UniProtKB/TrEMBL annotation:
It is found in: Membrane. The chain crosses the membrane at residues 219-240. Gene3D superfamilies: Class II Histocompatibility Antigen, M Beta Chain, Chain B, domain 1, Immunoglobulins. Residues 1-23 form the signal peptide. It comes from Aldrovandia affinis. It is a single-pass type I membrane protein. The keyword Phosphoprotein does not apply. This is Ig-like domain-containing protein. GO terms for cellular component: MHC class II protein complex.
Length: 253
């Protein structure tokens, strides 16, 4: 199950015991977890946490409590022996989670904007340094994206670093994944983006003939200079030819 599509909506965090900054913190966290549109797998989770340690959890899939510490186990045993408590908790799945999940689907989760994806090399490989490829995904919504690099279809994990998902400030996000890469001929390097807007994933291949902007500019300047040089040369030759044919040779005495 891809974490990307697993939506976990954490809600209603109750802070119940909090004496002071250095005090103890007991809180419960209720979650509605679902991965499918038809909500067939929706799960209600109710966690009890003391000082960051979860000691007791209700899980609607099991319709049971699980204890993780001595006191948690004792509480779980007591609650599991109480059918009223279990049916009360199970009903949260249908009464609390399902309507909320529907609301999230119809108002938020159905809004997704596909990113534009491109790969550029930020510098070329030299004998000393490998190339640096950057895969950028722009203007996607919502947050929650996975960018991976593939070499001939196989995922590459080493020498990969990524930025956070950066908020553009206009609801859209962007992300950049960097990969150090020593080019080998005949290899296909691609960048795969998984996002809710593209359920099947989006794969962009790196066009190794594509030069980075600085290099491209150098080529353009060089080519322009060459063309300009040729024009001047041709003009000069034409001018010379014209002049020399128009010249009347006066024999010197
Ligand atoms: C709830 O229980 C089910 C069935 O054992 C399990 O697959 C699922 O991961 C549990 N969920 C959590 C959040 O513990």
């Amino acid at each position: 199950m891809s974490t990307l599509y697993s939506l976990c909506i954490r809600a209603l965090i109750l802070l119940t015991v909090l004496s002071d900054i250095d005090g103890y913190l007991y809180h419960t966290q209720r979650e509605c977890r679902f991965t499918s549109r038809d909500l067939h797998d929706i799960e209600f989770i109710d966690r009890h946490i003391f000082n960051k340690l979860e000691f007791l959890r209700y899980n609607s899939t099991l319709n049971a409590y699980i204890g993780y510490t001595k006191i948690g186990v004792a509480n779980a045993e007591r609650a599991n022996a109480d059918p009223t408590e279990l049916s009360r908790q199970l009903s949260q799945r249908d009464r609390y989670c399902k309507p909320n999940a529907e609301t999230y689907y119809s108002n938020i989760l159905n809004k997704a904007v596909e990113p534009s994806v491109e790969i550029v090399s930020s510098h070329l490989a030299t004998s000393k340094h490998p190339a640096m490829l950057v895969c950028s995904a722009y203007d996607f919504y919502p947050q929650g994206i996975k960018v991976t690099w593939l070499r001939d279809g196989m995922e590459m994990t080493s020498d990969v670093t990524s930025t956070e998902e950066l908020a553009d400030g206009d609801w859209y996000y962007q992300i950049h994944s960097h990969m150090e890469y020593t080019p080998k001929s005949g290899e296909t390097i691609s960048c795969k983006v998984e996002h809710s807007s593209v359920p099947q994933g989006k794969v962009v291949n790196w066009d190794s003939s594509f030069l980075p902007e600085a290099e491209r500019n150098k080529v353009i300047i060089g080519a322009s200079a060459l063309v300009l040089g040729l024009i001047i040369t041709i003009a000069g030759v034409v001018y010379y030819k014209k002049k020399s044919t128009g010249r009347i040779l006066v024999p010197s005495s």
